[in-house]
Design goal:
The chain is α+β, with helices and mostly antiparallel strands. It has helices at residues 3-69, 115-121, 146-156, 174-177, 181-191, 235-266, 268-285, 300-334, 338-353, 388-396, 450-504, 513-557, 563-590, 606-617, and strands at 85-90, 94-102, 125-131, 137-143, 159-164, 167-171, 199-203, 208-214, 226-234, 357-364, 367-374, 400-403, 410-412, 417-419, 422-430, 433-442. It has a five-stranded antiparallel beta sheet, with helices on both faces. The protein has a five-stranded antiparallel beta sheet with strand order 11-10-16-15-12, with helices on both faces. The two termini are 59 Å apart.
Amino acid sequence: MKISVKLLLITFAVVVLISGASSIIYYSLSNSILESQNSKSVINATTDLAGSLQRLLEKMDEEGTRISIDRADVDKNLKGFESDFFFRLANDSLIEFSSFFSNDSVFLNKSSRSIKSFVRQNRNIIYRAGQGRGNTIYFYGKAVTERLLNRIAEEIRAEVAFVVNDNIIELSHQVKNARYYDVLMQSYEMLRFKNNYDIYGEHLEDSDFISSKYEPKLLSVSEDRIGFLVFNNNIESWQFRSTIKMVIIIIISSGIALALVLILLFTTRIRKQIFLLTESAEITAKGDLGHRVPVITKDEIGKLGESFNKMLNDLEKIKFAEKEYLDFLTLLNQSPSLKEISEAVLNKIIQSTNLAFGTIYLVNDRQLEEVSSHGLGEGFAQPVQSAKFYSKVIEEKKEIEFVFSENYPEIRTGLAYIKLKYLLIFPIIFNKEVAAIIEVASENVPSLDVKKYLWNIHDQLAIGIMNARSHSQLEVYIEELKTLNEEYQKQNIHITGQNEKLLELSNQLREKAEELEEKRNQAVRLTMVKSQFLANMSHELKTPLISIIGLSDLSLKEQAADNKIKERLQVINRNGKKLLTMINNILEYSKFETGNVEVKKEIFLLNELIEEIKESIN
């Protein structure tokens, strides 16, 4: 998937997420406000209901007292009274029908004689009890009818349901509210064990239903559980919520469309820059490090393009450094002698860094010995042994770099004096000791970081110089051994000739036998001295040589070693074994005169012998 498509999808997702979250928050807040307003309205209506009931009861109490006192002056139909019935008890439980007053407009079941049966058969009544003259007990009350509930509903501006024992007995505006019967029963079921004024709400298909319960205390003396359910069906809030949903959908749709249009308009250059970056990455992946990204924006994507170009520049430098490193290794492997290695290395350094002059010194007991130089006349590269710069480099094992802007030092090339603007004295460290010093200079400040270049090749340069130095020392030892062996052979021939002459003249020179015997003993002692010398010399040469071969074998067996290092270790191992063979051969030659030559059987690999012969021929 292209980045431009991803950008569009991400923006689309962000817009949808933000718009959706904002809409949800707005919808939730609006819904919370609506529910809060509806809840407050129902709670206020419930409070008004409690006040209306309290006023109704107070008026009924006044009327009950009045009827019990002036019963003769009261119309038996209770016209003008709030109460719907009044009667006295006989024998504390039976209704005295002679004193039974009731409102004819209200239906009451009067077939029961006992108070309990009367209450049981008339569930929709609210009644109270009082005590009159002569300790007579009388009851009065009111029937809760739809007309009463409609009157209360108009007062409290909410609908009312009358509930007895968890059953709805009467309902205000019954024709209109009958369809909410199931919801009313469910709401009362949820509120029955809760406190007065608690709220229950539900979203219906065409309105928002919200209700509250009110159970008055001491409303009657029966065991029935009487309560009122105040509720509202708010169609306006449901319509408002539906309108909000439609507005939210419109806002989200228009926001997405507007966001897509703005993205297409304002991200053209960004998408173009991303395309150029992608194209450059593909070209670079094919190996073309010379390609660069055209930067057409100044934002973060443009900075990314600049960083990409900078990375390509660094990669080119790394590739150049690797090439220089490989060339340097090739020089070290092609030049075995110290003089050849020093000259080849110095020429390569001068050529790679665009410097003009250079010298390589060997360090022996803090003394400098010039090995090779470049750009200087013969005899002009002799180091000043007392110079503090060299001593500081040897002691601190750190390079010293000078960039001159004035008071330029001068160097003589043979024909003229040249003013230097750049000078670097660089130590070559091997086994934590300074083995050599490279001094380079130029009449101009180089653009390349010379120190970094030398540190990149430092390790291989140190190994190459030390190997060449050891090789040169071994060559000197071998030449000395050859000279000693030739002298020994000459002396051995001379002694042999003398012995033959002594044997021929033994009969004539018996009187000088003791003198000849003494000379012979001297010759034997000389031979023993020579043999001991050869043995000591071979031990002194073989011991470090065997250590070198053993260490190289152990290093070759290490898995973590770099392939290039392994290749150089193999060169050291192979040349060391050759040298060890040469020393053993010299010792074998020295045994010829004593007749102690031994024939030894050794197992060898024929292909290795052939490879050694080929390498010797090459």
